[in-house]
Design a protein that fits this description.
The chain is α+β, with helices and mostly antiparallel strands. It has one domain. 20% of the residues lie in helices and 20% in strands.
Length: 40
Amino acid sequence: MSNKTHFHMIMTDNGQECVHHEKIAKDLDVEIYFTQPCSS
């Protein structure tokens, strides 16, 4: 089952927790978007 049935994208800031974002996106078959600092 594809993860796209559970979620379509991941939004994150530029923190260290998502340093391997390309591998995460490929492994989970999702798109990852980064927010602008102080954009909320």
